[in-house]
C-alpha cells in the first residue's frame, strides 16, 4: 500500500476521486488537506467528510488550508460544482466536533518530515503545497511522488483560452512548487482529462446499480452534466480528478513527455502552462506531462475499484451492451 495525502477542493470530481482512492487497496490515504478552489475551504472540508462518512472512514483526518490563493483573491467554481460544491442536491450533513481541523500546511510539513515514502495527489490549486514550500524550501523533496491535476498543453483552457482552473486560480503557487522539487511532478492536464467523460450511459448504469455509493455519484454529477451542456454542449461530464488517482495507481493508463513547465502569472494568458518541449532554456525537467490516455482502461479501473462486487456488469457496460 502506498501512503498518500490527497490535497483537494471538493468539488464534484474531487469527491469522485476521493471515493476512488478510498476504495483502492493500493492506497493508504493517510490524510486529506483542503485547498481553496472550487469552493471556499470550509465547504471543501464538509464535502471531504461526506465521502469519508459514506465509506465509514472518519478515521482519516481532514485539515483545512487558507481561504485565499498565495497572492490574490479566490475565484471559486461554484457555477460548475454548485454553491455547496456537490451539485446542490444533498441533505446537510452534521459535522462532529474535531472532524475537520485547521492547519493543512502544518500537517503537510509534519507528515512529510516524520513519515517516509509519502506521496501527494494534488487535485486543486497548489496553494497548500506552495505555502509549505515557503515555510521550508526543501519539503516537497521528501515526497515520494507528486501527481497534480492541472494545466493545459495542446488543448484550450477551461477558464480562458489557455488557463486551466487549478493553475489559473493560483499561478504563483504553481511556480513556487515546480521550482522547488527535485524530481518531476507527474502532471495530469486537461489534454488527458477531457477524454474522461462520464457519459449519460455510465450515469444510467450508476442509477441502475441501486446502491448508496452509486446513487451519490449519480446525484452529485447531475449539476455538472447541466453545466457541461450549457457551457460546451458536451453530453455527460468531464471528471478530471479521478484520472489523477487512477494514474497514480496505474501509470500505464497514460503516457507523456519529460520536460520543463512554468506558469504565466499575469495578463490574458494567466494560468497558461508554458511547456518547453523544444528545450529552449536547457532547464532541468520538472514535469512529466501526460499527453495520451486510454480512457476505456480508465473506466474499467474506475468501476472495478469502486464497485468490485459488480465486475460482470461493469464489463458488459464497458463493452457497450
Ligand atoms: C479542475 O478544476 C476543478 O473544477 C476540478 O475539480 C478539477 O480539479 C479541472 O480544471
Ligand atoms: Ca479539483
TrEMBL record:
Report the domain of life of the source organism.
Answer: Bacteria
User: Key word Isomerase present in the record?
Assistant: no
A single MF term (Gene Ontology) = hydrolase activity
Q: Where are the transmembrane segments?
A: none
Matching entries from Gene3D superfamilies are given as: Ribonucleoside hydrolase-like (3.90.245.10)
Domain named Inosine/uridine-preferring nucleoside hydrolase is located at 4-300
Q: Which UniProt keywords apply?
A: Glycosidase, Hydrolase
State the SUPFAM superfamilies in the record: Nucleoside hydrolase (SSF53590)
Protein name per its UniProtKB record: Nucleoside hydrolase
Q: Which organism is it from?
A: Candidatus Cetobacterium colombiensis
Amino acid at each position: 500500500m502506498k501512503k498518500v495525502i490527497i490535497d483537494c477542493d471538493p468539488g464534484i470530481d474531487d469527491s469522485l476521486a476521493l471515493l476512488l482512492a478510498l476504495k483502492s487497496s493500493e492506497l493508504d490515504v493517510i490524510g486529506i488537506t483542503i485547498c481553496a478552489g472550487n469552493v471556499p475551504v470550509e465547504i471543501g472540508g464538509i464535502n471531504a467528510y461526506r465521502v469519508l462518512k459514506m465509506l465509514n472512514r472518519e478515521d482519516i483526518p481532514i485539515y483545512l488550508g487558507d481561504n485565499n490563493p498565495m497572492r490574490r483573491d479566490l475565484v471559486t467554481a461554484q457555477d460548475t460544482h454548485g454553491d455547496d460544491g456537490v451539485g446542490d442536491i444533498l441533505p446537510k450533513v452534521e459535522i462532529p466536533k474535531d472532524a475537520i481541523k485547521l492547519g493543512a500546511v502544518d500537517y503537510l510539513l509534519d507528515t512529510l518530515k516524520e513519515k517516509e515514502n509519502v506521496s501527494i495527489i494534488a487535485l486543486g490549486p497548489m496553494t497548500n503545497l506552495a505555502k509549505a514550500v515557503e515555510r521550508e524550501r526543501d519539503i516537497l523533496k521528501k515526497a515520494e511522488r507528486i501527481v497534480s491535476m492541472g494545466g493545459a498543453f495542446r488543448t484550450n483552457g477551461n477558464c480562458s483560452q489557455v488557463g486551466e482552473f487549478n493553475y489559473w486560480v493560483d499561478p504563483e503557487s504553481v511556480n513556487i512548487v515546480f521550482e522547488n522539487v527535485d524530481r518531476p511532478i507527474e502532471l495530469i492536464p486537461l489534454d488527458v482529462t477531457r477524454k474522461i467523460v462520464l457519459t449519460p450511459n455510465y450515469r444510467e448504469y450508476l442509477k441502475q446499480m441501486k446502491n448508496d455509493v452509486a446513487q451519490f455519484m449519480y446525484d452529485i454529477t447531475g449539476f455538472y452534466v447541466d453545466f457541461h451542456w450549457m457551457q460546451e454542449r458536451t453530453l455527460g461530464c468531464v471528471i478530471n480528478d479521478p484520472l489523477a488517482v487512477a494514474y497514480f495507481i496505474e501509470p500505464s493508463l497514460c503516457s507523456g513527455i519529460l520536460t520543463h513547465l512554468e506558469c504565466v502569472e499575469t495578463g490574458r494568458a494567466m494560468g497558461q502552462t508554458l511547456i518547453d518541449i523544444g528545450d529552449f532554456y536547457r532547464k532541468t525537467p520538472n514535469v512529466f506531462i501526460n499527453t495520451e490516455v486510454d480512457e476505456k482502461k480508465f473506466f474499467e479501473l474506475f468501476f472495478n475499484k469502486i464497485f468490485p462486487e459488480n465486475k460482470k456488469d461493469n464489463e458488459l457496460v464497458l463493452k457497450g451492451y
